[in-house]
């Protein structure tokens, strides 16, 4: 939603996708990160976008770990939806359409 205030957001999208792949375990396995980084990342949404679904499909996730992961994802979903709604309302106040 940065597009409300910026004209070119392609580079931000590329940076976001790189961050998701790196911190989610697609570029490097999360087990290669230091233990403190793994602990920190377990509270972010990134591992639950890439690594967690793969581990769950492979049967490496216990029921308790799965429920905890779904809880963290639910909290991030609520936060993201609330933040998105706020930004959307503020962005609509400043939006001007340009072009054809």
TrEMBL record:
<feature type="transmembrane region" description="Helical">
    <location>
        <begin position="66"/>
        <end position="88"/>
    </location>
</feature>
<protein>
    <recommendedName>
        <fullName>ABC-2 type transporter domain-containing protein</fullName>
    </recommendedName>
</protein>
<keyword id="KW-1133">Transmembrane helix</keyword>
<dbReference type="InterPro" id="IPR010390">
    <property type="entry name" value="ABC-2_transporter-like"/>
</dbReference>
<dbReference type="Pfam" id="PF06182">
    <property type="entry name" value="ABC2_membrane_6"/>
</dbReference>
<keyword id="KW-0472">Membrane</keyword>
<keyword id="KW-0812">Transmembrane</keyword>
